[in-house]
Design a protein that fits this description.
The structure is a homodimer of 253-residue chains. The first copy, chain A, has 253 residues and is α/β, with parallel strands linked by helices. Chain A is built from seven helices and 14 strands.
């Protein structure tokens, strides 16, 4: 089993267009600090599943037939942009699983092309793709959004973005089915005022403490959080790290 | 003055996702045959204006402050996709001129960020950006669409995509103000049945004959037209050629 962070960035990414903050400058100088649209890939045997599809080069990275499905968290552009070009393609259809959202994104649902949006997900109702077991988990965001709890090859991964805090039922599920690896939205530096739509670092660390996964990787990182982390280099809580594009997790050793 | 074709492709581009036709195979083998989303750049002195913004790497190609404006033909995704990421940027706003279209594309108009959509264009009412004079010309497409007649440094360029045929008033304007260079939608190979939304080669050649520009470059080319051209290598009409990504025109010699 191989889990790869394809992108760890908040909307706009890092570097942010036109921004010269220390984090954006650093990412222009050293490409490993670039943060692309938040997304990931799970591979096990011959099965490959993408989590979100916001990468601009999604179709180039994943040629026709190379993916078994895409799990969409929600229909904001930074999570679906890569689907717009490939939908006009030829060959096998690509199954897109995601939340019920009547508006979708622009005309994706009215002109799906080779994309197959017919699957209907229900919260907490697990389904399988080959031998990967997936449970959709409701999140709290500005439009219908699902996280995913993924059981594969004896490992448990929770992918939880975009969200601010977690619904009580999702928190309870995660406390019961404690993940080995948890990817968690943390777009913002610590803040005294409540955030909308995305976690700040305080809220993310508090969720890590409540759920107690073996490892938490914070993702959907903004340039503001990167700049804050540059100014506050002390370690985060034990078991918590900041995801990087390209980072790989290979399951329990 | 320098006019550059940034992209010459129909929606889906060449190669088309999952397609193994001769044209798609050729473009995978030789990168000069790749066709990106139809778009162009006009440069004169210190002024730079983009025509459409569908390139996935639009923000990387055009860092903050490097463009004076974008002229949008219409709000289909392959013409605006590059705006979604840069809108969240910092710094100077970027003027986006385009047709009145209450829906725009997804949430671009409700969350414009640094994009300035306030300019209101009227058909045949010319305006100036520095010393570049621009006249919007109505086209015929599945949503409100404008072509542009551009006068710069003694040269006249008409940019006419996406369109099937031309409205009578636009045709009359172009016959009166004969362009030196005309970029014209030609998505499809010759067809006996009428096309919707885009010209086929027969219609494009007939428009070239009626308008009689010095040069016509066909653009918004589909893989189907490329494959047809590979099977029919005889020259097109005098003065007509097929645009390529990166192709440059430097005005009248």
């Amino acid at each position: 089993m191989k889990f790869t962070v394809l992108g760890s960035g908040a909307v706009g990414g890092v570097p942010l267009y036109g921004c010269d903050c220390p984090a954006c400058q650093r990412s222009r100088a050293v490409s490993s600090y670039i943060r692309r649209p938040a997304s990931a890939l799970i591979e096990h045997g011959n099965t490959r599943i993408a989590l979100d599809a916001g990468l601009a080069d999604f179709g180039t990275r994943f040629p026709s037939g190379s993916l078994d499905a895409v799990l969409l968290t929600h229909y904001h552009m930074d999570h679906v942009a890569g689907l717009f070009e490939i939908r006009w393609g030829k060959g096998a259809s690509l199954a897109i699983h995601g939340p019920v959202d009547e508006h979708g994104c622009d005309d994706l649902h009215t002109h799906p092309g080779i994309l197959d949006f017919s699957a209907t997900l229900e919260a907490f109702q697990c389904f399988e793709i080959s031998d990967i077991r997936i449970t959709p988990l409701p999140l709290i965001h500005s439009r219908p959004t699902l996280g995913y709890f993924i059981e594969v090859d004896g490992a448990r991964i929770a992918y939880l973005t975009d969200t601010v805090d977690l619904p009580a039922a999702t928190l309870a599920f995660l406390q019961t089915h404690r993940p080995d690896l948890m990817l968690l939205d943390c777009s913002h530096p610590p803040s005294d005022t409540p955030r909308r739509n995305h976690n700040d670092l305080n809220l993310a660390l508090s969720l890590h403490q409540k759920i107690a996964p073996l490892e938490t990787w914070l993702t959907h990182i903004s340039h503001d959080l990167d700049a804050w982390l540059m100014a506050h280099p002390e370690p985060l809580s034990r078991g918590v790290s900041i995801a990087q594009d390209g980072q790989v997790w290979r399951g329990l050793v």
